[in-house]
Every structure is written in C-alpha cells, then in structure tokens.
Amino acid sequence: MFAAGGGVTGPFGGTEAFGVAAAAEPVLDLSRHWHEECGVFGVWGCDNAAQLTYYALYALQHRGQESAGIATVDGTEMFHHRGLGLVAEVFAPEDLNRLAGTGGVGHVRYSTTGANKLANAQPMVLFDVYGGPLALAHNGNLVNAMLLRRELEERGSIFQSTSDTEVVAHLIARHRGGSLTDAIVDSLRRVQGAYAFVFLTPGRLVEARDPQGLRPMALGRFGDGWVVASETCAFDTIGAEFVRDIQPGELLVIDGAGVRDMRFARAARKALCTFEYIYFARPDSDIDGRNVHVVRKAMGKRLAKEAPVEADVVIGVPDSSISAAVGYAEATGIPYEMGLIKNKYIGRTFIQPSQVLRERGVRLKLNPVRKVVEGRRVVMVDDSIVRGTTSRRIVQMLRDAGAVEVHVRISSPPVRFPCYYGIDTSAREELLAARLSVEEMTEAIGADSLAFLSEAGMLEALGAGPEAAGPGAPAGRHEFCNACFHGEYPTRLYDDLGKGMMEMAGHRGGGS
C-alpha cells in the first residue's frame, strides 16, 4: 500500500509532490559559495516515525533545499511521499498522516549528480527486492557512477533518473544469492567516492558510511528506538541522545534485535571533508567529536594571528562566517558587530521582475547595517571565495554604506580545485584562486586587503596539527580531505567515459 494524494506518480511508485519553490523557475542563484550537499535521516522502532523524520529534516534543511522526501514502514508495508521544494512546502499534515509506521528514512537534496527534477528526489523506492520494498537515501557523490551505469545498461537495466544513487539501487536489485545485507555490502564495495547511505525495508534500517569517511554520519538513541543522521543537530531537534559517530567503512543493521555493526571496507586513511566545518554543517552540530562552532571560532582566532590588520570593527558574512568573525574579533581585540543582515525568507529561488533587480539581487539577501560600518575601517570575515562575484558585491555594498576601508579575511585556504564528492563547485577555470594571485584577487573583489587562513592554521584549529598526529606519524598525516585546496584527492577519479585517471584536467587523484 502506498500513499495517495494530490501528487503525481513517480518513476519509483508512490506519491510525488511539487512544492511552491518548484513552480517558479529560478532566474538568479544567490548562494554565496558552493551548494550544500544533502541531508539524510533514519529512524527505527519509534512511534510516529514520519513526524520525527519531518522535524529532523527541518534541522537538516541547510544541507539541501531543492527536494525532500520521507519513506516509512509499519512492519509489512511501505509508504512514501516526496517532492520538489523545501520540507514545509513538500509535506502537508495529511501527507504525514498517511506515512504510517515505526521506521522511516528522510532526505533533503541539493542536486550534485543529476538535475533538479522530481525523478531524482529521494528517498528512492524499489519494489520486490529480496521479497519486499526497499527505500534508499544518499548524501555524497559516486565518482565511478557513469562507469557502473553503462555496465548496468549493457546488462539490461533501465534507469529512470540521472542520479548516481539509482546506480546503487540497480546493483542491489541485480544481486543474486545471499541476503539483502549481502547485496548492500557487495554493491557498496563496487562504488567509489563519498557517501552516507540509509536503506529502509519493512524489517530493518541499514546505514553505511564511505571508507574514507568523506561524509559525516552519527548514531543516536530515541527512547527505545534508534536514529541516524548526517548531523547531530537533527538529534537535538527531536530530543534524541547522541550515541556515537559512525566510522568510515562501517555498516549498521538496526532491527528488533538492536544494532549490529560490521566493517564492509577498510580505508587507507580517513578523509572527512573540511568544508563540513568551514561552511556546510550547522554550528550546533558535532562531527567526529568536534563542535562546528568551536572549530570555526578557532579558525577565526588563528586567522587573526596570521593576518592581523588595523581596523575599527569586525563583521561576519552570515550565517556560516559568524563564528570565525567572533574568533577573529576576540583574538585582535577589535569589536565584533552585526554589520551584515541576512534575509532568511527569500529562500534559494525567486522571481525578479527586472534586469536592475537581477544585477542588485545580492541586496535582497544581504544588507549592510550603515550605522555599524559608516566611517569605519571594516574587517569582513568570510568562510571562502569561489568565483569571487559575490565577494565583490558585498565589498561594494559596504563601501556604499560608508566604510572607509574593507579588509577581507577568509577563514579557509584558497579554493583552487573542484570537489568531486558531492559539492557542486565550479570548473577549475572559474575558481578565482586558480587563476589569480592573492594580490590580483584583492583587486578583483575591490578590497583594501585580502588574506586567507593557511592550511597548517586550519588543521591546527581542527586539532589536527603535527602534535595531533602523534609521535612517529608521517609528516602531513591527518584525517581530512583538503583536495579543493591542493588537488590531492583521496580516491581515484574518473572521466565522463568512466576511465580511471591519475590526472584529470590538472588535478591529482590518489588510489582508493
């Protein structure tokens, strides 16, 4: 039995819904940097699983605003609903009421692999897999997805979406012999890249984290039940208790017998994406034992030590740069002020009626506080520079508001290489730091000065400096992926033809 209602039938069955945001074609994307990844959540053994998942997805909304979905099970049957738009736009009360059961999986998405269309919304649901339905949700990006997809198509698989997640679905569906858990494990051993997967069946919840730990995932306890989530802020929202981080290459099977864990893969080294701390995660989340706000504040303090400047006020670009700005202000003794205000109600897409507004669109999302910056030397702390377009606009806004000097400080190293692991970055030739020196970038964004946090300083703020590696550890050994700064990727890369490459458009790739 599947939910019925005012949606349309999707390629995997069940009900699909279009949210309000999907009705208007976007004409200007005002995201300041790179797009978020995705957020996943799973629950087992809890009453009103759909309601819990709904609130958890609210907490994870910052990780993806293009689509949302929930699938639930009641022991024998599966129900699901998904659509384009924000969580509040996709789910009406009647939708949640139809999602019965004590187990569930939820997903919020930003499209990295695959366009933003309904067929790519998750969770994906398959029928009659090992005797029953299977729902799966994925955060990350599979770098060998095209190679596997072509192989599966040659063997007769018919794909109905452009998402790399469907590759894993087909691998599981085509597996022969053994149990569903065996099929999941064998399928995951064939894929490469970044992933945190949650699988749901009427009898169990299964979670897996990629062997490098590129994407975060945590286990929590809710009463007598269990929950898993991309970030611990989801646990706080629903009142669950954090138990532990799920380890790289670890698979959890959760059912009526409790939680069983196993290692399905062993990594050469852990490589958690540093941008989880720099930009993506919520400040109140803890990832692999580190609080995001504390790390960002430490980055700001280290940045102040590396790049001090005489100024009258420190401001941060909301929201992800506020913690670093506070750290910078504390370390320098320069007062921190709310110099930029973010309009939180615009969302990611909206219609602009004229070219003038398109050109000034950034003001609809950010606006300077004139009384804070007027007549003052301003330090503007931001978390990163990608193309530089928005940085230039913000600097000009501050000057228009009366700032006599604008000194830009970035709480991460220069981004010189694209990400292939689930973050929608520009091509390398579009990255400002890949083309220009710091002096040239300063001129390009119109600042009086510009400085970036060093990679060593960033690792120190993460508690991953030389002393953290321990005696006898190899030089430069740490547990993070910094490929976007230096181009040394933790897995093998593949071109569009699925050929493994050690070098890709000037980027170095390591073996998996």
Strand order of the largest sheet: 1-2-5-4-6-3-12-11-13
Looking at how many chains there are and whether they match, the oligomeric state comes to single chain
Q: How many E strands?
A: 30
Strand % is: 25-35%
Q: Please compute the radius of gyration using only Cα atoms.
A: 23 Å
- Helix segment tally: 19
CATH class of the largest domain: Alpha Beta
What is this entry, summarized?
The chain is α+β, with helices and mostly antiparallel strands and 512 residues long. 27% of the residues lie in helices and 27% in strands. The model is unreliable at 1-36, 348-355, 467-475 and 497-512 (pLDDT under 50).
General description of the model:
- With 512 residues, this protein is of the alpha+beta class.
- The chain has three domains: 8-21 and 38-271, 4-Layer Sandwich (Glutamine Phosphoribosylpyrophosphate, subunit 1, domain 1); 290-460, 3-Layer(aba) Sandwich (Rossmann fold), CATH 3.40.50; 465-509, no CATH class.
- Helix content is 27%, strand content 27%.
- The strands form eight sheets. It has a nine-stranded mixed sheet with strand order 1-2-5-4-6-3-12-11-13. The chain has a six-stranded antiparallel sheet with strand order 7-8-9-10-14-15, with helices on one face. Strands 19-22-23-24 form a four-stranded parallel sheet, sandwiched between helices.
- β14 (250-255) and β15 (258-263) form a beta hairpin.
- α5 packs across α6 (180-188) and α9 (292-306) crosses α10 (322-332).
- The longest helix has 15 residues, at 292-306.
- It starts with 7 loop residues before the first strand and ends with a strand.
